[in-house]
């Protein structure tokens, strides 16, 4: 069965600094038409940085849409045309002050494919060396070291709610347990 939809018309409803909201009319596989509202985003990158003691460097920051402080791994928006790996190294340095000797590609994550075209590229990092934090001017955060086992428990108990953090930490845990990282 053909499941693909074809865009017939496309309208930009809102264009902001980070996102664009679109409203399209699509031709469905059965020949009918449907309205499709969605968000475009340049994409993001996250990194699971592991210390020599198997601790995850995490950041606490206020997340405005949820009106709460969220514990998550270092991450940030990819600049247009920038390679995801370059973004990951930049965000790790900016948010934690760390650089890594070794990285592993953890794949891509579609955070909410029902209405958003964002892709998040995920990496693991180890062999950390520490320098000075350099967060963006509108970014206020605290760095926290969380043992990997505790981070997994926090995911399972619902304390860590961020999707990219959950997926990337659980992937790292499985790779470590299988001897692949």
Short description:
The protein has 181 residues and is of the alpha+beta class. The protein has helices at 84-96, 148-157, 163-177; strands at 6-15, 20-27, 33-40, 44-49, 55-63, 68-72, 75-77, 98-109, 120-130, 141-147. The termini are far apart.
Verbal overview:
- The protein has helices spanning about 85-95, 150-155, 165-175, and strands spanning about 5-15, 20-25, 35-40, 45-50, 55-65, 70, 75, 100-110, 120-130, 140-145.
- The chain is an alpha+beta fold and about 180 residues long.
- About 20% of the residues are buried.
- The model has no long low-confidence stretch (mean pLDDT about 95).
- The CA-CA distance between the termini, in Å, is 40 Å
Report the radius of gyration as a whole number of Å: 18 Å
Bin the strand percentage. 35-45%
The number of helical runs is: 3
Largest beta sheet, briefly?
4 strands, mixed
Q: What is the β-strand count? A: 10
Enumerate the strands of the largest sheet in spatial order, edge to edge or round the barrel: 7-4-9-8
Portion of residues within helices = 10-25%
Overall shape: it is: globular
SSE order: EEEEEEEHEEEHH
Derived structural class: alpha+beta
State mean pLDDT (0 to 100 scale): 96
| Poorly predicted sequence stretches spanning 5 or more consecutive residues | none
């Amino acid at each position: 069965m053909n499941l693909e939809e074809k865009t017939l018309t496309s309208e930009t409803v809102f264009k902001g600094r980070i996102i664009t909201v679109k409203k399209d009319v699509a031709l469905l596989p059965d020949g009918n038409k449907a309205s499709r509202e969605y968000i475009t985003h340049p994409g993001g990158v996250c990194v699971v940085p592991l210390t020599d003691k198997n601790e995850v460097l995490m950041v606490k920051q206020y997340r405005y849409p949820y009106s709460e402080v969220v514990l998550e791994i270092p991450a940030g928006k990819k600049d247009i045309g920038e390679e995801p790996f370059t973004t990951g190294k930049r965000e790790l340095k900016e948010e934690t002050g760390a650089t890594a000797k070794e990285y592993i590609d953890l794949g891509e994550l579609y955070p909410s494919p029902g209405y958003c075209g964002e892709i998040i590229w995920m990496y693991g990092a180890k062999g950390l060396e520490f320098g000075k934090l350099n967060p963006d001017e509108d970014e206020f955060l605290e760095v926290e070291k969380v043992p990997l086992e505790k981070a997994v428990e926090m995911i399972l108990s619902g304390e860590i709610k961020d999707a990219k953090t959950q997926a990337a930490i659980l992937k790292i845990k499985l790779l470590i347990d299988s001897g692949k990282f």
